[in-house]
Amino acid sequence: MRTVVVGAGPTGLFTAIALVRRGGQVVVVDRDPGPGGDGPWRRRGVMQFEHAHTFRGPVVDALQAEMPEALTALTQVGATVVT
Asked: Residue ranges per domain, the chain?
């Protein structure tokens, strides 16, 4: 299946990865340019980009089911799972 995902935020990227893992062909488009290497990255189109965020229970469940390695990587760099 060929799919275009609009938006490279957490939901868009999660969706794209899940579709690829099921054999899909995915193109992700976003209005903001990607990061330019190491260093700070400003996302003008995302007002809450620098705010603190948490993953609610259903998101943790989805990550554990679909991308456990991503959840492990997040916790290894300091994320705390709150249930």
From this structure: 1-30, 54-83
